[in-house]
Design goal:
Blueprint lengths: L6 E2 L2 E2 L7 H7 E4 L2 E4 L7 H7 L6 E3 L9 E6 L2 E4 H10 L6 E4 L12 E4 L1 H6 L14 E4 L4 E8 L2 E8 L1 H15 L1
């Protein structure tokens, strides 16, 4: 049933996805967590070990990034918990990426999830570790010895201006209000 369900990035390949009814019959959603339900199709050992327990595990998909997510193994396929939470609360698999509003990828409360695209998600991302200004879109130009402010709009980098750190941060904030 789940043979061809592939999780790529934050998008679900919707071909051969498990139905809402199937997922609802095996998992219970409660406050951001999924719990295994008693399953008639499993033996007593499985039900003793898993029924009523939190489903899934924490996974770090990229060793180079400080990012973790919860996944559940359903019939041999790893499926992201936030995708299942979306399904159980809306009745449909997400057709876009899902963003965690509070930036905590382990917080899968439904009210913390929203449909998004890559561009919108990047606006809600953490500031990079190598950021020296403390503000997204503001960087120091060593040759000119001043800061510059930029913003990405429609996949194009827009130069906002340069000057002091405070000035560039203000430029960036105004641009976010204007463009986003």
């Amino acid at each position: 049933m789940l043979k061809n369900l592939l999780v790529q990035g934050d998008r679900v390949n919707l071909s051969n996805k498990p139905s809402y009814e199937y997922i609802d019959s095996i998992l219970l959603y409660n406050e951001g967590n999924l719990f295994w339900k008693y399953r008639e199709d499993r033996n007593k050992t499985w039900n003793t070990r898993f029924s009523g327990k939190i489903a899934g595990s924490i996974n770090k998909p990229n060793k180079n990034k400080d990012y973790y997510r919860k996944v559940v193994n359903i019939d041999g396929q790893m499926i992201k918990v936030h995708h299942i939470v979306w399904l159980l609360n809306t009745g449909d698999w997400p057709t876009m990426e899902i963003d965690h509003k509070d930036r905590n990828s382990l917080n899968n409360n439904f009210n913390n999830l929203e449909l998004s695209n890559r561009s919108l998600q990047s606006r809600n991302s953490r500031i990079r570790k190598d950021n020296n200004s403390g503000s997204r879109g503001v960087s120091f130009m060593s040759r000119e010895k001043k800061y510059k402010a930029e913003i990405m709009v429609d996949k194009k980098l827009k130069y906002l201006g340069s000057g002091s750190l405070e000035y560039c941060i203000e430029l960036r904030k105004k641009a976010e209000l204007n463009y986003w």
